Each structure stands twice: as structure tokens, then as C-alpha cells.
Amino acid sequence: MSKLRIAIDLTPLLPDGKNGGAKILVLNLLSQLQKLAPDYQFLLLTAPWNHLELAEYDNQNTQRLLLADLVEDTNSVKYREKLKNLWKRLKFKLARLTYAKSLLKNHQINLLFCPFSAPRFAENNIPVVAIIYDLQHLDYPEFFELREQQLRTEFLNNLLEKAQKIICISDFCRQSFIKHLKAPDNQLTVIPISIQDRWHGLSQEITNQYLIELGLVNCSYAFYPANYWQHKNHRLLLEAYKIYREKCPNLPLDLVFTGDLKQQENQLRQEVADANLSDYVHFLGFLDEKSLEAVWCGCKCLVFPSLYEGFGMPLLEAMYFAKPILCSNAGSLPEVGGDAVLYFNPNSSEDLVNCLLRISYDPDLVAQLVRKGKERLKIFNGQEMAKQYINIFELAIVRRQSIGI
User: Where does residue 237 rank: exposed (0-12), middle (13-18), buried (19+ CB within 10 A)?
Assistant: First the structure.
């Protein structure tokens, strides 16, 4: 199928790392789609806050459309603040936006792709494909106020109504959709994330330069890349790390955090200072890709204590960089990690401490985890991921046409 015109709603894309891993997936997927579908025409719907950032994606089959009159409803902003940043774990920015009512039809669009979930620009008779990242408010309702739970569920029901196909990033995510919302199985498709081969391939010299700038050169450290959301479980990791240091004061294993959300980071910094761990715990904030790659290259292991994940991209990144993984056994993580991970209970600091001790004292275990990780990674392929998206786009269009619309 050729000459298709696909609109991609990138208006929720935010600066730096505020979208979490969703932004990394979306931009890398876009690059793959441009290469694999040269006959398609992609129209990127952009907003004033991201239009310039997306300029690098302009080419013969891709153009940006700046929706310059996008306006956030002030009352909506205040309401989100009152509800403690509603929707942030679904990785898109909630806003009421004004836009041309026949935007897609006027640009002869065949399909609307919503990689940040919300089908805000959906129009009658134009099929919609969307990605959903998790259903955390249904699996972990205690993390949310009742009204927030209700609004999130309303959103998901609206998505079920408008989208011809919903792409789930794991089977765990798909099963949650079926369990909680009785979603029809044929509307849901699982396409695992596979973007771990995007890195630059830094030389050792350049890697060391970045590590010097970050204060990590010649430093042995466990790495946790995650925004400071509640379900990421930083506090349990800090509790376990403190016990680990008490048990092994002479082991030179520091702890490195990267991620966005400055207010939450500052709260954790204070807790680290109160525990007298400031010399050993490094907060690097949001990093550009090359700096992040250097941190990956320099780390001893990945530690991933999350209470809930729809996928878990850092697991594949750790495998790519040949690093052993200590990982929570919650959510989708066993589905992604398979037998290449040392698992622990994310509610047990003692369990995590034991894993830290094992990784510190057992080089054979480290080698085994790295070897299994390399094998596990072979089943995740970025090009195949993009091909599956293209197939879904075409199926959604054919299905819409077949019912006479």
C-alpha cells in the first residue's frame, strides 16, 4: 500500500525527559518509519513548545504542521495541578486545545497515529491507531485519588471507542486492558519496544571525557535511569542501599540516578543527605543522549526497583551495553527480562540488598547474566518493530475501507 498520508500527533511531546521513555520510543520509531515507508507521506502535528525540536525530521516524505493557535485552557492547568499532575504516568500532557475542526480532512489524511495515546484530533471516518503504555491507575489504584482514577478510566474508554487499533507495549499491558475494561482482543495488538540500538558508539576516550564532566570517572556505580515518579520506587532503593553500605563499607559501589522532575529530585536529595549518603549517591538530572550513553558504558550494573512497568526499556539498554541487571519482578518486567535478570521483590529492601551483595561478590553470576542478556536481546529488533507498526496502519485503513467508509 503506497501513497498513504499519515498524521502523527506529536503535540504532547515535551522538552527534555518529561515524557519519560515514551518520547524516546516515539522519536526513534518515527526515524524507522521514514526509512521503511518512503512512499508514505507523514504529517507531524506539532505545537509551539516542540516545533523547532522536531525540525530534524523534515525530509521528502515528512513535513511538520505547526498548530500555532494551540491554546491551553487555564482552568485545565489549574485543575491538573490540583490533582497532582494528572496523567503524568501515561506520558502525555493533558490540555484542552483549540484547532481547525477539519484539520485531517483538509490535509487528505488517511490515518491518525497517536503515539502519546490521546486521540485529541480524531475526526469521523478517519481511522485512529494509538499506543497505550500502562493502566497503572487500575492495577495500582492506591497511587491515585478517586477522581483521577475516574478521569483516567473515562479517557481509556474514549480511546477504545475512537481507535481502530490500540498498540500495547507488552502483553502485560494488553491483559490489563482486557481484564479491567473488557477490551475486545482484536482491537489490541502487542508490539514490544525495541530502540536499544540507537546509540552513537562512543570511543573510550570520549566516554571518559563525559564521565569526568559528570564526576564519575574511575567510579564503580549501580545505575537507575528513571523519572522520580512514585511507582519508580526510589525510596526503597535508597533504603536498601543504606543497608548495603552498612554491611559492606569498603565496597566501592556508588549509586547514580538520572531523570527529570526537579522538585521530586530535590526531595530525594534531602533524604540522601539526611542518611549521610551524599558522597555516594549521584543525581545527574536529565542527560543528552551522548552523556547518557557514557553513563551506561561506565556503570557496573542496572538496578531497577520499579513497582509497576508497562514495559521497561532500561532492561534492553543494559543488555545492549553488556551490563548485569538487578530488577523488580513486578508488572511487565519478567516478560521483558526473561531469564537474563536477577529478580527481587520491589517491596523488600532485604531482597534487594541480597541482590546487591550477590552482584558484588559473584563474578560468575555477573558473566552469566551478561551472556544471557546478549541472547535475550536478539528477540528485540527495531526494524521489525517499525514494520509491525506499518502493518497495523495498513490493516486499520483497509478495515475502515472494507466497512464502506
Answer: buried
